[in-house]
Amino acid sequence: MASTAEKTTAKSLHLHSNRFGDLDVPLESVFEFPEGLVGFPSARRFVLLDHRPGSTFKWMLSVEDPELAFAVADPSDLVAGYVAPFESAARAVAAEPADLVIFALVTIPQNPTEMTVNLMAPVAVNLKNRIARQLVLEETGLDPAHPVLGDAR
Fold it and tell me: In this predicted model, what pLDDT tens digit does every residue of 28-72 receive, in sequence order?
């Protein structure tokens, strides 16, 4: 069911967000988290928006609540030596490695030099079926608030 912030046409979705303005998003760019995100179980459908051309960062914007958006990035662009959990991510979203993208949630506080990236709970998206899941990894040494600027490439 479309909310007041969302209107659907045959091939696109119109969203209005105070932060991002009016957006027409192709339906095929929407991806879904069947279980929602940790802490946001009802936020299930999202689109990725570029932060600015050439930026490492993107915005993961909720379709259900366009006022909800998360800064995200490929963690290997932010953390030297980071090895993405491709095997577990591929299993979680039933994807072949070529059809998989992994990104991490980024926290940008008022002082951006204190920016952190969540390496413990990356997001995996199957680009073929548009299903996404947030993984909660149990490997030791993965930080849910890893400082970005100390490791930026």
Answer: 999 999 999 989 999 999 999 988 888 999 999 999 999 999 999
Q: What is the DSSP string of 26-93?
A: EGGG-EE-TT-BTTBTT--EEEEEESSTT-SEEEEEESS-TT-EEEEE-HHHHSTT----HHHHHHHH
Structure tokens at 17: 């967000």
- Tens digit of each residue's pLDDT (9 = 90 or more) over 98-143: 899 999 999 999 999 999 999 999 999 999 999 999 999 887 678 8
* Contact predicate 120/105, CB 8 Å: no
Q: Which residues contact 111 (CB under 8 A, 6 or more apart)?
A: none
Q: How many whole angstroms separate alpha carbon 120 and alpha carbon 140?
A: 9
Pair 80, 106: CB distance under 8 Å = no
CA distance 151 to 131: 30
CA distance 134 to 78: 19
- Those residues with Cβ within 8 angstroms of residue 95's Cβ, 6 or more apart along the chain or in another chain: 89, 124, 126, 127, 128
